[in-house]
Amino acid sequence: MRPHRTSQQALPRIRLNPDHDLTDRTEHTRPASMSQHGHDRGQKTKPAKHFYFTVDCDWIPGSHVGLESLLKSCDRIGIKATIFFAGRFAEAYPDLVRACFDRGHQLGTHGWAHGSLEEDEDFRIAPYEQQRQWIRQATDAVEKAAGVRPVVFRAPNLWIGETTLQILEEEGYRCDSSVPALRFDMGLGRVHYAKYFWAPRDPYRPSRMNLNHIGDSSVLEVPPSSCLFPMNLAMLRTLGFRRFQRMIEWIGRRSRHLVFYCHPSEFVFAEAQCFPQNMSKWNQKGMGPANLSLIEDLLDYALAAGYSATQMMDATADRLDLRSPIVLRTEGFPSDRTYREEGPQ
Questions:
Q1: Do the beta carbons of residue 63 and residue 87 sit within 8 Å?
Q2: pTM of the model
Q3: Which of 11, 17, 290, 328 qualifies as a FRET site for 125, CA 20 to 30 Å off?
Q4: What is the dihedral angle through the alpha carbons of 64, 68, 70, 71, rounded to the nearest 10 degrees?
Q5: CA distance linking residue 87 with residue 178, whole number of Å
């Protein structure tokens, strides 16, 4: 059961109706009861709206309790997430990583020791050899824990560069979710650079020369959603549900893809975890198990609004067919167990 709320804590119940929804008024949403490959009798069918529920597991000792609780919430709702692990988290809690895979969640990497460092891993400026070491260490840790090689990546703090894309291609990665399109945190968060502000907001194959541009990379980019500020749990906690809903509506009128992320540390009281000294006190405020109810309400709302739960490896680039063929570089894999890409490309 969900934690009990007092009347002061209760979230507003959202009424969905034709005059107040998340879609463009010129398009029609397929009924929820219709099968994925069925046909809508006598009505136009809108391309599916995709909700990507993603989790960034930073290396914060004590935060694993939050992931355990979050997995139970996902089981209750029946949603499958894409979970990005810092390598040291996977190394410390291998059974938990394996449990995520066994439950049907998709596994990715999220740097090596991100979350516990005073000077964090910065993939924007780190040299090639250092970035490759971080990625390889994290990849090996997740593979050792789960028995499957991860092929999706999210850079710590969304600090990414063209060198990172090159390494991901060389290491056989298939998908990235790091480019902070339409995001600038105004000094409140970690995205305080605007280099990729005007990058595409929908999934795309980036150019190897400039991540702002569409190219023919073998790595599919699925940018985390943003409306200047990010679509994440920290922002939901700060704005409250109604204001956050307005962000969802704004994004929904412009894109079929909604990428949301949270952290296991947000479901554990801050005093029960070990943070680096440079961790924002503002971000630590409000952490605790009650945030699970916010997540469950958000997931209920997104599904009721016509979004379908989608994992990163199921994303497609709309303009992919206009580009050159995908070349997947898989040389040197230590294991033949990789995620199988499904669906059209």
A1: no
A2: 0.78
A3: 328
A4: 130
A5: 17
